[in-house]
Amino acid sequence: MAASVVVNQHLLCFPSSRNSRSCSWLLHKTCLLTPHRNIHFSLASSPFSTSLSSTSQSPEANTQTAESCVNLGLSLFSKGRVKDALVQFETALTLNPNPKEAQAALYNKACCHAYRGEGKKTADCLRIALRDYNLKFGTILNDPDLATFRALPEFKELQEEARLGGQDVGSSFRRDLKLISEVQAPFRGVRRFFYFAFSAAAGISMFFTIPRLFRAIKGGDNAPDLLETAGNAAINVGGIIALVALFFWDNKKEEEQIAQITRDETLSRLPLRLSTNRVVELVQLRDTVRPVILAGKKDTVNLAMQKAERFRTELLRRGVLLVPIFWDEVKAPELQKKGFGVSSKAVMALPSIGEDFEKRAQSVIAKSKLKAEIRFKAEVVSPAEWERWIRDQQKSEGVSPGEDVYIILRLDGRVRRSGKGMPDWQQIVKELPPMDALLSKLER
């Protein structure tokens, strides 16, 4: 059962003062949420995919407006003058901006703070934009300009707030997550209806049973049988308790499922560098390879990869792509001296996500090029983000953070199997069907 939900698509642009060309501030491309059938240890569902781009032109008008300040800030931003750009975005917020101008100013102000390593200020700006100006959380997840922020604890806190929803960050992200959860568990609403209906029926029955129970206890003529009445009351009370317990259990499972979907969304957006130096997100490899994530100490992971070389041919036939992560070599994300996020070369190599990418990805040419670039091993980009995701996943599964683990993904992005230590490659060769086999086609 798969479903796609279009979350948001709008382009904020304003005309230049002297010509008819428009200046794009904040581009939210179509964001697709594609839930999957089941949830295991971890699954990589099709993500909330968004693409953010900002271009600007210097304002030519003498009078300062929120629009002109944002345009000037973006121009300074593109030249690496982050401090001056930050001043312009802050000024724009004081000039009575309309909602779209305020959203653009707050978001780009957050990018400036992220560049400067100011996690708390970044989170505060994004929190206001989410709450008051309908910023989509998928934009924050997908923007390479915020890669350093996503590796900070402030991002984890903001993501948790967005998952739970509320007055501080709004409820749009939680609504999207609940929609996916409902698709994955379509009978939860039906179950809750029956919980409520049967609880109400037991309550009504209890309302009439209590007076009969008092009469049975007092005894006398025409008094109902005490054992029978007490038995009926016990059945009603037990039924209410059981149904209420099931209702709360179902709610707990829903929260766990939403938390898992949030982690899956984060995983699907983690970047990899292929052997050709092309940077792609994990979701872009869906239907093409089966990534095997190896996380642990360098010696342990290297030994596992050496053992995998013995089965290289068979593993390649099964679409295996090794993704090593070394616990002892993960460093804090470094700040770029100019601009934000990944290099311009990497950005050009990274296809946009959304309808345009979906159309290109369906073409035979695009897929054949991507397959040609994929080899036996890929290098993680933003290793701190990868480590944070794996440690969060370990905590959710009751595994001590920092232990050696492996995660095998399916062709459709869901987790096929995971465990402690390193995998048995011979067993994996027996378990995984070749890429041209019928089972692999059904797995897509």
UniProtKB/TrEMBL annotation:
TPR repeat start-end pairs: 66-99
Record-level GO cellular component terms: chloroplast
Keywords carried by this UniProt record: Membrane, Repeat, TPR repeat, Transmembrane, Transmembrane helix
Spans through the membrane: 193-210, 230-249
Pfam families (UniProt xref): DUF3493, TPR_2
InterPro entries the UniProt entry points to: LPA1-like (IPR021883), TPR-like_helical_dom_sf (IPR011990), TPR_2 (IPR013105), TPR_rpt (IPR019734)
A GO biological process held by the record: photosystem II oxygen evolving complex assembly
PANTHER family named among the record's database cross-references: PROTEIN LOW PSII ACCUMULATION 1, CHLOROPLASTIC
Listed name of the protein: Protein LOW PSII ACCUMULATION 1, chloroplastic
Organism this protein belongs to: Erythroxylum novogranatense
Lineage: Eukaryota, Viridiplantae, Streptophyta, Embryophyta, Tracheophyta
